[in-house]
């Protein structure tokens, strides 16, 4: 709390009033703290692969110089660490772009079915790697919303990638589009749910999942190439689109991440709307 006291005078007369300004600094202190936590986290995340790269370079320069087998193994790990740093920097840039533009809602006309198709094609190789099946339920007719195609692809891709990373061991990953008719005014909403049957998330972690660098299990996330920024990016892009993100999950049963958008018109076959994905 900061207190400022100033006498209010007029043309040299004696002050009849005193201005007392009380400022609550809790919020600005909280923001400053968040900022410095973020910088500390980002530096730590970048330093870890960098330290490992430097270690391997030294080993290659000295002890493993003449061992072809070791050289090959080390170079493979070094390539993985470099890829990790690239992924982290790309995600930091995405996050800062989404945060910077949060006040400007993107206005292109986008068909969510195109977004689903794009993400299916992009994540198919990862699904094969995890021996998982991607099961798609597209919207029955074009699902038009206002938005930015690349950002919406990024939202869905982050959710599907997570479902494959944390959820694929036990079954398929479902991507389901569903129209939710309007309760009052408006044209209703479109929901895309990404559902897995994987390890799930204990309920006490759910409220913090979209915080930057928050992970339920840091080692497990790192092992799977996670950066802890995927859901923070999803949240910011959804805010920018004036959309909603809901998360429901049960440990050992699986998770459902649902993104919801305002429709810009009624779907062509809205006489028989499909069931909303929950
Ligand atoms: P990461 O890059 O670590 O995956 P995210 O921000 O995308 O970061 O996710 C944050 C954390 O939420 C993950 O580290 C993981 O613990 C948890 N998580 C996200 N999606 C799932 C999922 N489908 N199933 C289980 N846990 C998940």
From TrEMBL:
Stretches assigned to coiled coil: none
Catalytic activity: ATP + protein L-histidine = ADP + protein N-phospho-L-histidine
Domain Histidine kinase: 41-265
One GO molecular-function entry: ATP binding
Keyword set, alphabetical order: ATP-binding, Kinase, Membrane, Nucleotide-binding, Phosphoprotein, Transferase, Transmembrane, Transmembrane helix, Two-component regulatory system
UniProt enzyme class: transferase
Enzyme Commission code: 2.7.13.3
UniProt protein name: histidine kinase
Organism lineage string: Bacteria, Pseudomonadati, Pseudomonadota, Alphaproteobacteria, Hyphomicrobiales
Residues of the full protein shown: 157 to 434 of 434
